Amino acid sequence: MSFWLIHSSDTENGGFFNCLAEDGSVYDTNKYVWMLGRQVWTYSRLYNEIEAYRKKDILDVAQKAAEFLRRYAKRDDSRCYFSLTADGKPVKLQRTIFSESFYVMAMAEIGRATGNKEYEDEAVEMLRCIVKWHETGDLPDGHLPLEGRAECSPLSSPMIILGIVSQVCYCFPQHNAEFGHWKKTAVEEILKHIQRNGTVILENVTPQGQEMSGSAGRLMNPGHALEAGWFLLEYAEEIGSAELRNIALEKFIKLPYEIGWDKDHGGLFYFLDADGYTPVQLEWNMKLWWPICEAMISFLMAYKVTKDEQFFDTFKKVMKYALNSFKDAVHGEWYGYLNQRGCVTHNFKGGPFKGCFHVPRTLYMCQKMLNEIILELSASGNN
Amino acid sequence: MSFWLIHSSDTENGGFFNCLAEDGSVYDTNKYVWMLGRQVWTYSRLYNEIEAYRKKDILDVAQKAAEFLRRYAKRDDSRCYFSLTADGKPVKLQRTIFSESFYVMAMAEIGRATGNKEYEDEAVEMLRCIVKWHETGDLPDGHLPLEGRAECSPLSSPMIILGIVSQVCYCFPQHNAEFGHWKKTAVEEILKHIQRNGTVILENVTPQGQEMSGSAGRLMNPGHALEAGWFLLEYAEEIGSAELRNIALEKFIKLPYEIGWDKDHGGLFYFLDADGYTPVQLEWNMKLWWPICEAMISFLMAYKVTKDEQFFDTFKKVMKYALNSFKDAVHGEWYGYLNQRGCVTHNFKGGPFKGCFHVPRTLYMCQKMLNEIILELSASGNN
Predict the structure, then answer these.
(1) Taking chain B, what is the end-to-end CA distance rounded to the nearest angstrom?
(2) pLDDT at B101 > cutoff 60
(3) Mean pLDDT over the full length of chain B
(4) Residues A123, A125, A129, A131: what is their CA dihedral angle, to the nearest 10 degrees?
(5) Which residues does chain B have within 8 Å of residue A28's beta carbon, measured at their own beta carbons?
(6) Which residues of chain B have a CB within 8 Å of the CB of A279?
(7) Residue B363, helix vs strand vs coil
(8) Global pTM?
(9) HSE-up of A35 (CA within 13 Å, CB side)?
């Protein structure tokens, strides 16, 4: 965290610089709304839950960034831009709901940290827009309605819905009545991605849960499936469903790891094709930091709920790869991008899609789970 | 060429399948308009200029694909889609003018091959739209006009304008009066990309010819600069400008090669940052087939116009790398994508951005130039 606390604040305009080189210097001043929202979330979550981060200056800088987001990221119709200039002018708008989703995460967690009802209202109103857009498919300035564009349910959509509904309900349980049912709906959508008699998780399926044709239909993203795995596992524990727990463990944690782990060089492939073709994505064989983060959380959570040693063994193996390959012991933070053999290809610490989020979230969640596991084992006399 | 002639025709719907695996089998039936336009151009150009390809069945399949393009690729407002289903339904529209530009190339060359005035009219009308959109910046369904979006002149825009104006004037010299001046304008725009006292070619500059801030401003694409090099060299020869010839040779051919050639592993880097940061593009260190193709054409053309042996030596070195690294002697065609060390990472022969174009165009142009060089050297008694 000290890397971000020291290097990322824009003291002139508020908000954070995202594009930080190896040593923390700013190599591009554009600001990315995914990253701003996630960094506000991270600062606020750590402020809320870890004593060492419960400091006024951390909350202050997070709040300035939240105000920057409210002022500059959101359009009148509640769409959020993808990127902004340093002083907040809009640069780019995506055709998806992710900027808006990270806006919800930021507002909910800073709302909890400050007790300021305005942030809670911001989070709730944006969440209402997102679930409406998701339900109707009618996103302003979204994809053009083209006749040949196949109806597609990407795994990312129900995952982000599950994530932000859980986030809002976690911070403000009173909204569970309005939004809680969306968790169940999102989980049902996620489960449609189990395909080919349970042998693969496909990234894109039809809304009816059928495999789509072509490269897009055969696409697998093992890190993404693993992330869905711990989302599902948390939900299974919440509702006490042994059946869903088992699906999460077998289909979304063990299976994507078996398929996605590179037996020759370690690490998780970014993309794979279910029929063994080369994916058309040029970066398919690269090893990214975030799939490893999701794998660490998934396997430790799997061990926590099952106490099955196989999950803890994989957690240790994955963590060892992560710390050996991604961590920069000199300047702090992790590198984000390795080639197939595990050599760093991009030496920056922050970029348009990497910010203050996955690494601190993973370390915070794993530390918390490990503490709970130690307590549980102590209580049962197995330490 | 036999790879494409055997494997790519869609005999049911007309047009070509683009996504061909290593052995030529179709792994995705979507059709990409860049690739369709380029393949029509390639078939027609070879039909027009090489005896061995002057066959009715080659012209027939090109003409069926041209009809497929006319019927399905173009909207009423003359915008062209980026991709279509196998039977021609629109899948995606880009915010740029490249689909439209390859439409012009296809229509001009098939117009020359068939003598059918309808194709000539199609090419000319589309070219009028493109230069208007380029001049006014007012492209239907183009980029949203956002306040923070920096005014940018990407190298690709004047290059494609120069390319398609040259194409139309080459096929139909009578249109030189209307369009010829656009060559000069495009060349002036290209020359604005020489930056930092002539030490770099930058991919994006302001319309006024200043360096832009951030990663986008520092971006270099050596293969693209080399492609601009032979476009400029052709134009310099056409107008007989020794000054422009020298700029093309020194700044757009020698310089990008010196900067872009990987001294350790050979091949041209896809992207570089002028200040030495890692580019944010995940594929920056990959070796792609088309920059090597552009380098082969550029250095051979540089030798042809100067007879300076240094250019021929580099041509041979680049060609040797290309044939050793990209060529598939078993199934035909070249692979398209290698990692930094030169190993094939993607084993398909055709994809959304690789089709029947760069490899045959390069071999056709190089063969033609080599024949001309031999004749010139024979005539001067230096063979």
Answers:
(1) 31
(2) yes
(3) 97
(4) 60
(5) 213-215, 280
(6) 346
(7) helix
(8) 0.96
(9) 24
